[in-house]
Amino acid sequence: MSALATLLSPRFLGARNTLARSERRGLYAGLALGGFLFWLGLFALMYYMVGQFWVIEGFGPFLARKLLEMFLASLFVLLTFSNVIAALSTYYLSDDLGLIMGLPVSRTTFHYGRFLDTLVQSSWMMAIFGLPLFLAYGLRMDAGPTYYFALLVAIPSLLVMATSFGVVTATLMVNRYSAQRTRDAMVSLALMLIAGLFVQMRALRPERLVNAQEFESLAAYLSELQLPAPTLFPPRWASEVLAATLLYSPFPWIEAALLVTGALASAGIARWTVAWGFDTGWSLSQEARAARFYRSSGFDWMVRVLPPSWRAMAGKEFRIFARDPSQWSQVFLLTGVCAIYLVSIHSLPISSFQGAVLRAMKQAVAFLNLGMGGFVMAAIAARFQFTAVSREGRAWWVLRGAPIEPAVMLRAKGVLGIIPMTVVGMVVVVGSGLLLEAPAGLLALEAATTVALAYGISGLAIAMGALWPDFRADTAARAASSPAAVLFMVVALVLVFVVLTLLAAGVWLYLRAGGQSWPWAILPVGMAFAVCILAGRWPIGRAAEILWARGL
Questions:
Q1: For 381-428, how does the pLDDT look when each residue is reduced to its tens digit (9 = 90+)?
Q2: Domain segments of the chain: what residues?
Q3: CA dist 391 to 181, 329, 457, 472, 475, Å?
Q4: What phi, psi does 402 have (nearest 5°)?
């Protein structure tokens, strides 16, 4: 136990020093406050949803139980994928493995240390998204102490089983393929799974489940709620235990025993698998990634439209994007987001309104889609452009000494991210406008604003990513989840709000004057575009000066 505590102590000491001595303590405090407010908002939403299901006469307990079962099944699948990726990073790709392998630490102690590390890294999903739902169930349904005791047994058991499955899968896969390729493949598969799950859930139209009158019969209604769950499926055991304590039914001792023994057995299997395959897997993980695309002339052709001083840096970014599956696989997630949003817009009950009210509501929704488009573009910029400087890692000194202007280098690195931002923004904003039959003038204004917002958000992302780079992040996803990235999202959403406000003021002035005083109406619209252009140009130049002055 002392050796295990020593092995885990750097994690705790590093976190403590970061909070106590870092210059970003104020940023961390703001992030913690924002996360707590988000958690409270999610709890309020879950409390309301559980209440709406619970009050349905005759079907309340059944609906509440099905909702719990569906949530546990979905969360367990996502946790399993997350644990596979986390196990690959902690067991086979961590930077400190070279040091630990030379220490007098037994493989058993090493395994349990990495197992706990993997468990903690992947359990945040259950803490953020699961805990509000479980508390909402307990408070809304007046659960007794038995329910909370069952939570302390069921949830840790699910976490241990998901982590064990992730460790076993990671070890088996790295004994066949390199760890880096395996992690990239799992990230791509996880993104496709999440995108497909979101699209499928939205296509089922879950809002119908609270209204049984929309179905032809009771059998049709119940068939929509059936979720096929095998008998030997851990989330089913957990849902049986929790539902029994919520509804004051006889306690399912068999399912509870399956949870506990399943957690212990899966942990033992993970230990034996690591003892068998760790040495071979770690040796294979040292294999370098093959550079298959660096000689392709297609990338040189793609950057010909850019200024000559930009082409070398932009071509490098395109090659890195093509070589890294964790980058280009984001396309699947973006496709799922666009599909979900367009299906949701198409399902809006706006057709129930007639006449002038219908036209006004359609135009209002089409205009407000700019806000959703701006939010999606900000999320894309946080993933691709905010992390552009951080992705250089230890090779940053190469660019630092290259004969290229700092501002030119930053702008060239941001070219790649503008393409998906503009495409997704156009699909979300203009596509929803076409579904809502918005007038041509409004569609043209939305398209132009989308391009301007893409330019402005891109400039903010590149600049703030250069001001707060994280060269120690092993993946772009980790850099995109930093406190500085959250601050960028806040600033980007403020920009979107300012632009929408100015556009709304211009439209209001135009409609108030009956279309006669368009020069006054065009003034706030021009200010909106000027704000986007300013946000896209000035921050990058200033950030380049500060970054180069730091001498990193």
A1: 887 888 888 877 777 777 777 777 888 888 888 777 788 788 888 888
A2: 2-284, 299-549
A3: 18, 17, 19, 9, 7
A4: -75, 150
